[in-house]
Structures are given as structure tokens and as C-alpha cells.
Amino acid sequence: MGNFQVIDHPLIQHKLTILRDKNTGTKYFREVVNEIARLLAYEVSREMPLRDVEVETPIVKTVQKQLAGKKVVIVPILRAGLGMVDGMLDLIPAAKVGHVGMYRDHDTMEPVEYFIKMPSDLSERELLVVDPMLATGGSAVAAIDALKKRGATNIKFVCLVAAPEGVKVLQDAHPDVNIYTASLDEKLNEKGYIIPGLGDAGDRLFGTM
Ligand SMILES: O=P(O)(O)OC[C@H]1O[C@H](OP(=O)(O)OP(=O)(O)O)[C@H](O)[C@@H]1O
Ligand SMILES: O=c1cc[nH]c(=O)[nH]1
Ligand SMILES: [Mg+2]
């Protein structure tokens, strides 16, 4: 079973409360989503492998560390995942960005894929799939299905708010995928929204309420 980790650093908890507040407007919401994404990127990259390299300081030659892992691809699930990309790129600037367009049908709650564009050689890359919300888990599972079909084998899923129902669905479907979230909330309501949650992340990011 993949690892499930709640990254509840005090700065992250503080910022998440700002996002939950219904009075937080679009501009500030967008900024804070990116700030949290940056903090999550720091934690998610903690296990990245290193290799020894020789470097010459102004004083001596020395052997020090350099990142050695697979090339990273940040994969936002559109639309809301886009809100996390810049924050992630702040810490992993050499990452490529692939896009998966997916919306949840309002009546059935089933995910509908409408766009996919990924860099080549997915089998040789580490993918960080990002989406602020893991609710029923349908969108995350469908996105990861699509990525595995294209050869991806090394995938982490990073979100801001997860419902227990979605965590279970994602773990059952993709036990090899590590899941990182800033918060594990209580449950879903009858419309599939996370309680307490922060509402519709895409609408709040892009002002489409
Ligand atoms: O776990 P699930 O039940 O599938 O729900 C989560 C999905 O719902 C939201 O996207 P939405 O469908 O609202 O699309 P949007 O990002 O374009 O607003 C969210 O950003 C996730 O992708
Ligand atoms: O609470 C939720 C559930 C799904 N998608 C969202 O944006 N918010
Ligand atoms: Mg939405």
C-alpha cells in the first residue's frame, strides 16, 4: 500500500484556514494555494535521491551532494490543479509540466476526461499529480489510470484537502501511489463536496462561482 501522509506543518494549517474562509477572495485564494503548494513541494521532495559530485569551493576541492533522481513532471488535474503549479515550480524549477483535463459531472459525480498532454518518456520520470481536492477520488483515479496507460510508473499524488472516502478509493485503485495532503477532512456531503472543505476549488481559484 502506498504511503498516506498528512503534512500538517503550522504554516500550512494557518494558510489552509484562510482558504476555508468563504470571505477569502479570488486573488488572495490563488496566492495562498501557491504558498501551500510550495510548502508541500518541500516535504514531498524530502526523499529525492542524491549523488556525490565533486565541486571546488574558493578554498578546496570537495565531494558534495546533487539531486540524482528521475526527472520530475508536475501534472495538474485541470482546472483546479493549475493553482498549485507555480508554487511547485518555485522549488522544482527544472520540472516539466504535463496537463490532464478532467471535470466531475455535477449529476453523476463521475470524472470526464477532456484533455491530456504529457512530456515523452513517462516511464523514466517521477510524476507529481497535483489537485487541491481529493473528494470521491474518481478524478484522481481516472487521471492516474490515464498516466499509467501512457507508461508512468512512479507517481505521487499531492492535494490540499482529502476526504477519507477519496483516500480509500485512490489507495484501493493505485496502491503504489503515495498520497500527500495538507488536511484529512471529515467526510463528503450528499453532493460529494468535502466537509468542512473549502468549497469548489476551481471556482474559487478562477472566480467562476
Ligand atoms: O475526487 P472527486 O470526487 O473526483 O472530486 C475532485 C475533483 O473535483 C474538482 O474538480 P472539478 O470537477 O470541480 O473541475 P474544475 O477543477 O474544473 O473545477 C477537484 O479539483 C478535483 O479534480
Ligand atoms: O469539496 C469539493 C469536492 C470536489 N471538488 C471541489 O472542488 N471541492
Ligand atoms: Mg471545480
TrEMBL record:
Protein name (database record): Uracil phosphoribosyltransferase
Pathway as given in its UniProt record: Pyrimidine metabolism; UMP biosynthesis via salvage pathway; UMP from uracil: step 1/1
Activity regulation summary: Allosterically activated by GTP.
GO MF annotation terms: GTP binding; magnesium ion binding; uracil phosphoribosyltransferase activity
Transmembrane segments: none
Note accompanying the cofactor annotation: Binds 1 Mg(2+) ion per subunit. The magnesium is bound as Mg-PRPP.
Protein family according to the UniProt entry: Belongs to the UPRTase family.
Enzyme class at the top of the EC tree: transferase
Species assigned in the record: Alkalibacterium kapii
Catalytic activity: UMP + diphosphate = 5-phospho-alpha-D-ribose 1-diphosphate + uracil
Gene name linked to the record: upp
Gene Ontology cellular-component annotations: cytoplasm
Pfam family membership, one: UPRTase
Residues bound to uracil: I194, G199, D200, A201
Function, in words: Catalyzes the conversion of uracil and 5-phospho-alpha-D-ribose 1-diphosphate (PRPP) to UMP and diphosphate.
Domain Phosphoribosyltransferase: 6-208
GO terms (BP aspect): UMP salvage; uracil salvage
Domain of life, per lineage: Bacteria
Keyword field contains Nucleotide-binding: yes
EC number in record: 2.4.2.9
